[in-house]
């Protein structure tokens, strides 16, 4: 995988052969983005299977269960991680000998990686019809190739719109404190030849009020059956501001990002370390000992969302009905 903490200064690929290293990579944001950590979790379990010295399926399952716990506890908000781990555990429970279980786990992880790209391309196509020639589209955080196996969710929609022959520009927010927007989205889109401008998070209102942007699309870490969307901290502010200015606000997320069981009060918002806020890189930007509140995600309520783009179609308000229809049709 690419070490995303080194971007945009260095493009470094890292390889892991121990699932503990994969867990550390997820925790430290070497790999990040909901679909990317889902598939990384699956490959982490594939490594755990290869590392296991088990001679019986029961022992192998117990080794996998231990690895699952370590991988799962890295990040609590994106539901794709649990989805990826659970999918592998289901496959592991079906085999009747150690070797065949190991092989089917590896095959499933590889299929999940391939499927992720196909799903993103389908999602992109479904979303592209919502965007017009000469649109300027704002996005927050990084929901691109880097956040997935390839192509991206929100950036996949922008890619597909461009591939359909429409001319689009992009405004990427910086996305403090970790700067996924400036370090990753701006890098990825510039690398791929998009017309992209970077703004500080504080210029979202200015850009909307001055008509520099006419649509928004973001990714998601978790979508509830009610249409409540959990995404990178600051998404809620972007959505509120879009509502104020009558700008359509879209979310692009695969069905693996939906959590059809939880209610808003059940969702754990990851709180990250203070130094992400008190420093920029290694440089101190706040006084020693300052109290810091550093939530990694926020919740955007359904009334601010114009549509949720998935590989199975676009859900429009009221979301309880439209989301359940998408799942019914995808059974
Ligand atoms: O903390 P991160 O960088 O993992 O947060 C990522 C996001 O919030 C993305 O917008 C989300 O995962 C969608 S990725 C296709």
Our estimate of the beta-strand percent is 5-15%
Order of helices and strands: HHHHHEHEHEHEEEHEEHEEEEEH
Task: Report the biggest beta sheet as strand number plus sense, adding barrel if it closes.
Answer: 7 strands, mixed
Low-confidence stretches: none
How would you classify the helix and strand content by structural class? Answer: alpha/beta
Instruction: Write down the overall mean pLDDT.
Output: 97
Number of helices, counting only DSSP H or I runs of 4 residues or more: 11
Describe this structure in words.
With 331 residues, the protein is of the alpha/beta class. 43% of the residues lie in helices and 14% in strands. The protein contains 11 helices and 13 strands. It has helices spanning 19-27, 34-51, 57-72, 79-94, 98-128, 154-163, 180-191, 204-209, 235-244, 275-278, 319-329, and strands spanning 136-139, 169-173, 195-199, 215-218, 222-224, 229-232, 249-252, 258-259, 279-280, 283-284, 297-300, 307-310, 313-315. The strands form 3 sheets. Strands 3-2-1-4-7-12-13 form a 7-stranded mixed sheet, sandwiched between helices. A 4-stranded mixed sheet has the order 8-5-6-11, with helices on one face. A two-stranded antiparallel ribbon has the order 9-10. Helix 4 (79-94) runs antiparallel to helix 5. The longest helix is centred in the middle third of the chain and has 31 residues, at 98-128. The two termini are 32 Å apart. The model has no long low-confidence stretch (mean pLDDT 97). Bound molecules: 5-S-methyl-1-O-phosphono-5-thio-D-ribulose. 5-S-methyl-1-O-phosphono-5-thio-D-ribulose (MRU) binds at residues 32-35, 78, 141, 143, 147-148, 153, 180, 219-221, 231-232, 296.
